[in-house]
TrEMBL record:
<dbReference type="InterPro" id="IPR050272">
    <property type="entry name" value="Isochorismatase-like_hydrls"/>
</dbReference>
<dbReference type="GO" id="GO:0016787">
    <property type="term" value="F:hydrolase activity"/>
</dbReference>
<feature type="domain" description="Isochorismatase-like">
    <location>
        <begin position="6"/>
        <end position="192"/>
    </location>
</feature>
<dbReference type="Pfam" id="PF00857">
    <property type="entry name" value="Isochorismatase"/>
</dbReference>
<keyword id="KW-0378">Hydrolase</keyword>
<dbReference type="InterPro" id="IPR000868">
    <property type="entry name" value="Isochorismatase-like_dom"/>
</dbReference>
<dbReference type="InterPro" id="IPR036380">
    <property type="entry name" value="Isochorismatase-like_sf"/>
</dbReference>
<protein>
    <submittedName>
        <fullName>Nicotinamidase-related amidase</fullName>
    </submittedName>
</protein>
Length: 204
């Protein structure tokens, strides 16, 4: 595998949080246009990243059906168990079909974790070393939980971090924007135009 400077980290693009029939759905109504906007933005991000040969790490969260591997010290985790969501092998824990990984590509990886921060207790750091990533383009749902938690860890670990804002979502626009504002201290926040320019400046 050839070294890469930039890697895309795609967080929780799973049925449970993005499909209208999901149990979590990041607080969006089943017919919310925000959902399709996020799906389209993330799909376009994947297309551009693949065209540029960037590695993509697809991060999923999933637990045993008995939740024996779920620490219930946080309200959000207790809520996952209470809603019987994100169990391993279930439809809800699978990637949304529009944002499924290309499992035949040597440039795409799948990482599973069980906490807020995608680095914690997962092989994400090891995968990023394999592809020699120094800069991370991070996106996912929800903006104020897994995205912000992962961005904070990545910044502390020394990565240059960018956030693809159009491919992120939270329970409300206010929460989403507050998280982006908070992360702007540690990462470059890219709107749609800036994200397109970012890819335009990469070799394809």
């Amino acid at each position: 595998m050839q070294p890469a400077t930039t890697a895309v980290i795609a967080l929780h693009y799973q049925n449970e949080v993005l499909h209208p029939d999901g149990k979590i759905r990041v607080g969006l109504d089943s017919d919310s246009p925000v959902r399709q906007n996020v799906l389209d933005a993330a799909s376009a991000m994947f297309q551009r990243a693949r065209a540029c040969g960037l590695p993509i790490v697809h991060v999923r969260i999933a637990f045993r059906p008995d939740y024996a591997d779920l620490l219930t010290n946080m309200p959000i985790m207790r809520g996952v168990a209470a809603s019987n969501a994100m169990t391993e092998g279930s439809w809800g824990a699978q990637f949304h079909e529009q944002l499924a990984p290309d499992t035949g590509s040597p440039r795409e990886f799948i990482v599973k974790h069980t906490r807020i921060n995608a680095f914690f207790g997962s092989p994400l750091e090891e995968v990023l070393r394999i592809v020699d990533a120094k800069r991370l383009l991070i996106a996912g749902v929800a903006t104020h939980s897994v995205v912000e938690g992962t961005v904070r860890h990545a910044a502390d670990a020394g990565y240059e971090v960018l956030v693809a804002a159009p491919a992120c979502a939270s329970a409300s626009p206010v929460t989403h924007q507050a998280a982006l504002d908070s992360m702007s201290l540690m990462a470059q926040i890219l709107d749609a135009n800036a994200l397109a320019q970012f890819f335009d400046e990469l070799p394809s």
